[in-house]
TrEMBL record:
Its main location: membrane. PANTHER family: GABA PERMEASE, L-ASPARAGINE PERMEASE. The keyword Transmembrane applies. It is found in: Cell membrane. Residues 35-464 form the Amino acid permease/ SLC12A domain. This is Amino acid permease. The lineage of its organism: Bacteria, Bacillati, Actinomycetota, Actinomycetes, Kitasatosporales. The keyword Plastid does not apply. It comes from Streptomyces nitrosporeus. One of its GO terms (biological process) is amino acid transport. Keywords: Amino-acid transport, Cell membrane, Membrane, Transmembrane, Transmembrane helix, Transport. It is a multi-pass membrane protein. Belongs to the amino acid-polyamine-organocation (APC) superfamily. Amino acid transporter (AAT) (TC 2.A.3.1) family.
Amino acid sequence: MTSAQVDEGQADDPKGRESGRSAEGYQRGLGARQIQMIAIGGAIGTGLFLGAGKAIDRAGPSLILAYAVAGLVIFFIMRALGELLMYRPVSGSFSEYAREFIGPFFGFVTGWTYWLFWVVTGITEVTAAALYMTYWWDIPQWLSALVFTVILYGANLISVKVFGELEFWFSMVKVTAIVGMILICAGVLTLGFSDAGDTATVANLWNDGGFFPEGIGGTLMTLQIVMFAFLAVELVGVTAGESKDPRTVLPKAINTVPWRIAVFYVGALIMILSVVPWSTFTPGVSPFVAAFEEMGLGVGAAIVNFVVLTAALSSCNSGMYSTGRMLRDLALNGQGPKLFTRLTGNGLPLVGTTFSAALMLVGVWINYQWPGDAFNYVVSFATISGMWAWIMILVSQIRYRARADRGELPQSSFRAPGAPFTSWFALSFIGLVVFMMAIDEDTRISLYCAPLWALVLGVSYLVLKARNPGSPSFAKRR
């Protein structure tokens, strides 16, 4: 039985709500408080705390505009996802929608690609977390990576509530850090305290070479960095099958996207670049650390290191959660080993989560043994695979809206405003980002990896289809 068959006509089953389980067998253990923080935390990661330094060096203050425009595109993507989620809230999310509205092959590709994205992300983030630990203690990196992986794996096997609580507090640390930085910068600008008090001014946004010091081209070249910072914002869609009241909670979480981006990205950068001239920042150095140092607040480096450690662990925790669900969705649809369909008594995909966690540990070991080009190729591909999920969300929403407008499917209770035009705009923007990646030597390698992964998936799909002739798992749904 496919997840679609399980869910059709049952997503709103009163018995399912009374039992606290979704039609797919998951526990509905994620409350509004946790979903909201998962949504907020998903948009805040190491891309902001560390990666923004390189982007500031390339674009100067105009990076603020890049984040604002990209944030608008992310909002269009999330509203498209929200429309699909209210049509049919399932844990497989974008993989399931790609399967229904584009075709079984695209559902297969999306599920396995998103799974790989989180496995690779988990490997890199737990490795990074182990590195951050050396700031305070001289602990072997392999030991820290092992301990973090085991702890997060264990937490994900207790209950979905534990995952939700971990994400809540991880996100709380990140939010508190950014809000604290904004308030400190506001104090420097208005009261003039700290070493930067005499030079801090909003005019720093245009005094040092103008708002576009590197030209429009420099701003465009940062788009890939900006979009990478937003990867994982779609994770809230994977929680649909385990939210206590998805039809109420998820729209509220998605509608917070504009102010999240306005405050945590645009607001934070406006404050930082007003207090510290953009030319002060250098690639590879967190703009938060640099700002603290310019203000004479040496404790800032330790604070940011702790926050980035939290962000890395949050990302790894999300990977543990999402990989098991994606593998189970694939298995339910006959596009993955049946072993992955098994759930524990408390509704957790034990086998899929264990398999993914084991690969993360192997990947960490490989990273330590051979931290060369081969591993970097795989890591760079993670960025492309994350954007593939966004593309599938947008195309699925466009096709769903067309069928719903023709009366073939029920209308969603959370229609995306301006769609399908906003969805086409978002797709065009992603196309622009891919083009900029192609002409940038630092990110071009990502595009070389994609065809190899597509070839592997294509061959695997044909083999599965040949072994299961006539299976409904490989027939397009009507």
